[in-house]
Design goal:
The protein is mainly alpha-helical. The chain has one domain. It is 63% helix and 0% strand. The two termini are 18 Å apart.
Length: 97
């Protein structure tokens, strides 16, 4: 994130204390709980027309262009080519490292 963008967000969001709280003081679990509530509230106030508009312009709310079957085939091939000592690990999609 650019410095100017971050500065604007911090300024409009309540100052450096807010950034410090989110980045340093909250535990990862509390931060996740807070963000889930933030997105729950945003979703609750979003009108159906706004959701459709978001679908049309935001690639993060559209289905992927590649088929799930093709992605599974890539995974299958990758696992088949991996070294014998490789152990696959599936991470929870809602828990960023």
């Amino acid at each position: 994130m650019t410095s100017a963008l971050l500065e604007r967000i911090v300024r409009e969001g309540g100052g450096a204390d807010v950034l410090e709280l989110l980045a340093e003081r909250l535990t990862p679990t509390d931060l996740q709980s807070l963000m889930l509530e933030v997105y729950r509230r945003r979703a609750a106030r979003q009108a159906p027309a706004a959701l459709l508009a978001s679908y049309e312009r935001n690639p993060f709310v559209r289905p992927a262009a590649v088929s799930p079957a093709a992605l599974l085939e890539v995974d299958r091939l990758a696992f088949g080519l991996a070294a014998p000592q490789f152990t696959p690990l599936e991470l929870a999609p809602v828990c960023p490292l």
